[in-house]
Please model this.
Amino acid sequence: MNIFHWARLPAFLFSLIIASAPLTARAEAGDELMRSKMLADIDTMHNLFSARYAPVEWKQHFASWTLEEATKRAQERVTTVRKPTTKEFHRILRDFCHSMKDYHVAIKFHSTEEAHLPFDVMSAEGRYFISHIDHSAVSSSEFPFQIGDEIFYFDRLPIKKLVDELNMAEERGATTETDQRLAEMTLTHRFGTKGHIVPSGRIIVTGRDSYGKMHAAKLEWSYSPERVNTHYTHLEDPISRVTMAQMLNGEPEKSQLSHQLSALIEMTTPEVTFFQDLGPQSFQSAHSIGNREGFLPELGRIVWQSSDEDPFYAYICITPEGQRVGYVRIPTYHTGDTGEPEAFRTLIGQFEAQTDLLVFDQMNNGGGYPIYGYALLSMLTNEPLSTPKNRMKLTQEDIISFLYISDLLSLINSDKDAKEVFGETYLGIPVNCQLVEQFKSFLDTMIDEWNAGKSMTNPVHLMFVDEINPHPTHRYSKPVLCLINEKDFSAADMIPAVLQDTGRAVLMGTRTAGAGGAVKASQPTLFFGAALVSHTISILERTDGFRPIENLGVEPDVPYTLTVEDLQNNFAPFVSAIQEQIDTMLDQESVQK
Model:
């Protein structure tokens, strides 16, 4: 028998310590390498926003924010964290982006980790109710709740406390109402791509049904693990980085000219893409951003309705007071050349002939192209509508692109040439040589501003569209009621601003999100895997020249906040309030006549 001699124990332990020392030293060196690469990534982010972020002055005024302070906080978190990890660093970068309180600023990480539960919630008056159930993922026996049932506890914690914590930890602290709705979505949908802490395992959801009976349902998170891990050894190899010279040498193809112009003025919140990535089965409730039909019940007895194949959900109804009202749902401004303008024109002809008032529902709209929104508004007016101006943040990359596109546009000398490049319409606007000259003037103005030493331009109309002229053949001349809410972003902030500032429509609902500017996505080469970083490249000013839309949003003329009764009774109070507002507007119209 081989007996271990106790006298040899100190020497044995010492040998273990000596043997493990290289491993410990290597791990510590690995931690320091991780920190150094994290700090390098923060420097990259700092440089990106220093060169490209437009609302710097406004953010300092609105939120006492500076890029230097935000960078310093991120650096301090890296240097003080005990054990640096990729997940922790993703959250540091995410918080750096969120510090700007800007719904256009986001970072999306390379990650496969995510988790979902088969239901969604919404709050009203501090209470939480089920707003959607994915019945394809859970049976009624497993989850004995219905839409409108109240939830009290989520994994044994008061649901309000948990959502409040998510709001503080995961959202931007920008617009209160919007952050609340986003936190409610985050409660049951977590993404590694967003830097979330992603849960797994079983939870208990406790609530009360419409009959007053309490239920406790056990659910399992639908969890996908992380398959993209970063070890410090991955950081030891040289990484080829894209240089500014390489970026400047990239020229747009002529065949992509229309897309290049559209990208200059896109106004969409990156939040849209995170939830759209889930697909129709996972996150397509009536409350999701961009849902075709939306959540609002019918406003009266339907006498005509659009087909399911039509780009727009629309109908004509008779209200309880006997008014003939048109309704059209505008879920997004992100399309425009796939039949929507023509379909909208047909609708307007029908509404003008057969209705007394139009309800223009753009609630839960993630934005898109304001030029397409202008095309729709051209069919809602008999008078020109003034448009807001933007101050654009310029870089060398922008200027080289503008020069190339401007040179291409100068080759277009006729309406025929213009249509060969852009098609018959561009985002819903008829194409002709004059439109091309307008676009070229916009680009040349940007180039002139840069050559004058300005990286932040004077206020200028997008694509030099200073007014929305009435459509030549199809125009709605009667009152318009525009429905807005806290999940209206970017272009869906801008279009209601035009309607309100020109007095063309009455706005009803809640304040829009306040994402006031154009957005651009970049793919900076970071050691720790960012798929993209989006940032605001312009700041939008209302037509009075003083008020930005950023952070302030657009306030409704007729405020309406959803109530507990709304969430429990299929929004019947909201429908009644809309019907009352319709009656008020039509009464005022008859008096004016």
